[in-house]
Design goal:
Length: about 280
């Protein structure tokens, strides 16, 4: 067994799909020391498990299966809103680049060929789980920020209407100050999480760099080395390393716009009865 030790994987669940019981046993032997492993000997059963509880964080899917092929299973996973975001790594004994290209075009995130190499399988699985965690965290924080801002704006509108109806405009300054404080707190919270995500993505690419170092121990003419180099080109790892920082930068730009709106609120014209009072955010 490899000495490879993934981190933060205590709750990660992996679904292995293969009609060959021996292959299910081999992959289970690699993965069970580190992950919760579910097994399915057919595509139909795999679809049921993927939509159930616990929902898998990653699926290792054999391509050539009787009844329902891996391509068909992946197509059904992508049609179902409950399973369409689960990353899928194709597992196959096929060596053709055309087969790999077809699988990636169907929506697979990676390709593992047989016979299995424990270090390669575990490195590929860990990389995809780390990327999924980063995507999930970013999506969750973006959704939370949108909902929080919408709620705060709705509250502000309701309070302003009440103040106008009751002729208590003098309280607007205090309300605005409270909103500014709450939004600033929320922005600081999301900014902190973005900084954490930035550190996580650096860790992920450090893992990829470490994996690339494995290529150095392979003989130059080893077929597996050529396969790894081909996959690196197909998955556009270099482009990914540029895209994630850009996404983080765009999120920070959105937070900067929110901060500007808050700062503009500080200049909200006060009633004469509050002239001279200073709003503090």
């Amino acid at each position: 067994m490899s000495n490879y030790e993934p981190h933060e994987t205590a709750q990660s669940t992996i679904l292995v799909v293969d009609d060959d019981a021996a292959n299910l046993d081999i992959l289970g032997w690699f993965l069970r020391p580190h992950y919760n492993v579910l097994a399915a000997p057919s595509g139909a059963l795999a679809l049921q498990i993927a939509a159930g509880d616990p929902k898998p964080d990653l699926i290792l899917l054999d391509i050539l299966m009787p009844g329902m092929s891996g391509d068909e299973v992946l197509a059904q996973l992508r049609k179902n809103p409950a399973t369409r975001d689960i990353p899928v790594i194709f597992v196959t004994g096929l060596e053709s680049p055309e087969d790999e290209q077809k699988g990636l075009e169907f929506g697979a995130v990676d390709y593992i060929t047989k016979p299995y190499r424990p270090a390669v399988v575990l490195a590929r699985v860990q990389t995809q789980l780390e990327l999924k965690r980063a995507r999930d965290r970013m999506a969750s924080q973006n959704d939370w920020l949108k909902a929080e801002l919408a709620r705060r704006l709705k509250e502000a509108q309701q309070v302003l209407l009440q103040l106008l109806q009751s002729d208590k405009l003098a309280a607007i300054g205090e309300v605005a100050a409270g909103i500014i404080h709450e939004v600033n707190t929320s922005v600081a919270y999301v900014t902190s999480n973005l900084n954490s995500l930035d550190a996580y993505q650096r860790d992920i690419f450090e893992l990829l760099d470490a994996y690339e170092a494995l290529e150095g121990v392979c003989a130059p003419d080893e077929p597996a080395l050529a396969k790894i180099q081909q996959l690196k080109q197909q998955k556009k790892i270099s482009a990914l390393s540029e895209d994630i920082p850009q996404l983080l930068a765009q999120s920070r730009e959105g937070l900067a716009r929110v901060t500007k709106i808050v700062n503009d609120l500080k200049g909200f014209p006060l009633p004469k009865t509050m002239a001279g009072n200073e709003m503090r955010g």
